[in-house]
Amino acid sequence: MRIGIVMAVALGVTAASAGSSLASTPVHVRAPLNISAPSPEYSAACGFPVLLSANGMLSVTVHTNPDGSVREQDVFPGLRITVSAPSTGGSFSHVFGPTSYVYPDGVFVGASAVITSYGVRGDAPGIPPDAGRIVTPGIVVAIVPDVGPITLPAGPPTAVSGNFEDPARVIDAICAALGT
What is the domain range of residue 79? Predict the structure, then answer.
């Protein structure tokens, strides 16, 4: 298992607002992505600030349901995720597979999410990348104007299938690569 390095950006947030009384037509967007956000999970584990940055192309489809819940599917052709620690200068990058997000209460800062990642993901130095399907609770940590929600993991995986490293081993490898 691996605690995910997850960053979600859903374009077209107005179509994904909570409290909608009617389902909306899906919103499809393909755009370049270059964004960074602090990782509360990795920062706490490593004992120093850790940033997650995404650079590459993003293809997003957002569905708003009649009950106000939101479903998002992201595909990341050529996207690289960089995990870095500005205080130590340590960093590493990896690719990231398709991911879906469900926001049961709508999209707002602090909203809960269910993050499901598929395919190859992660690649902390010294351990093999994960491959398969992993479901993790998430939380919206920010909403970037004209971009959308930034959603990060909020706990350990709730379901996994495939080849996943032990989460403690992954955290150790991440922190070691970043300079602890």
Answer: 8-178
